[in-house]
Amino acid sequence: MRLLIIGIQLVSHLLCQSIYAQTTELINTDRPDQSDGTHTMTKNTFQLESGCIVGKNIHSYFLQNNMLRYGITTSTEIRLLFDYGRVGSEIGIIAPGISVKQFLLTQKRWFPEITAVGYIRLPYLATDNFKTDRPAATFLLAFQNTISDRISIGYNLGTTFDGDNAYKTWIITTSIGYSPAKKISFFAEYFSSFENVLRPSHNIDAGVLWLVKNNFQIDIAMGTTLAQNVTNTFLTTGISYRF
């Protein structure tokens, strides 16, 4: 009986510690900007990041994006991605994805914090109108320098294969974040892609994030291309919740 009581107390203690951590730690998300952050989920916690994006380039589009994140260790998380929407006159499910995020190094003075991120999109789970010839894949390194309690700089460097073409695309992002208060933060970002057969694509976006609770966030952002023949202008908004 005494062992049973000790076991119950231990489980209760661990549960309370988990709930306390989830409600006191501030939520950290990978939306609404284009950069992946270096933060990984706390072990055994879930986080849902969901939003929609509306825009126009060659075609108008409206997409609903979802990413479910789960911490499997203190430095590793897995993510499931599911997107649905309309591009031009086509409506359906974009190829769902699986992602792994691995924290590598902490910041040492000016040497940045570093995390590795990998994505793979599975075309056979998409609707026929959004299938690709091969799985699309992305690998990147995410870096972050925390300048002060209010200012941070994040940047990504990586490569991606879109599933339809044999050539790869290099991707670069740079984002600066500013938090004047605990509940609100702003960001401005430059992101670009470089392909072997096309002109580089240069883009900017900016947005605001509002911390409703420590584990609940609302965001909105907008962006556009720079000096391109085809302009891509978009608006996105979403919510993120850590369970």
What labels describe this entry?
243 residues; mainly beta; Porin; 1 helix; disordered N terminus
Give a written overview of the molecule.
This protein has one helix and twelve strands; from the N terminus they run αββββββββββββ. Helix content is 9%, strand content 58%. 23% of the residues are buried. It has a twelve-stranded antiparallel β-barrel with strand order 1-2-3-4-5-6-7-8-9-10-11-12. It is mainly beta and 243 residues long. It is globular, with a radius of gyration of 20 Å. A hairpin with a 5-residue loop joins β9 and β10. The two termini are 33 Å apart.
Concise overview:
The chain has 243 residues and is mainly β. It is built from one helix and twelve strands.
Structural class: mainly beta
Intertermini distance: 33 Å
Q: How many independent structural domains?
A: 1
Could you report the average pLDDT, rounded to the nearest whole number?
90
Gross geometry: globular
Strand content: over 45%
The CATH homologous superfamily corresponds to monomeric porin ompg
Radius of gyration equals 20 Å
- Residues in helix, %: under 10%
| Low-pLDDT windows of residues | 3-21
| Number of distinct helices | 1
Number of strands: 12
CATH class: Mainly Beta
Q: Can you tell me the CATH topology?
A: Porin
**SSE sequence, one letter per element:** HEEEEEEEEEEEE
Based on the structure given, which CATH architecture is correct?
Answer: Beta Barrel
The largest sheet, given as strand count, sense and whether it forms a barrel, is:
12 strands, antiparallel, barrel
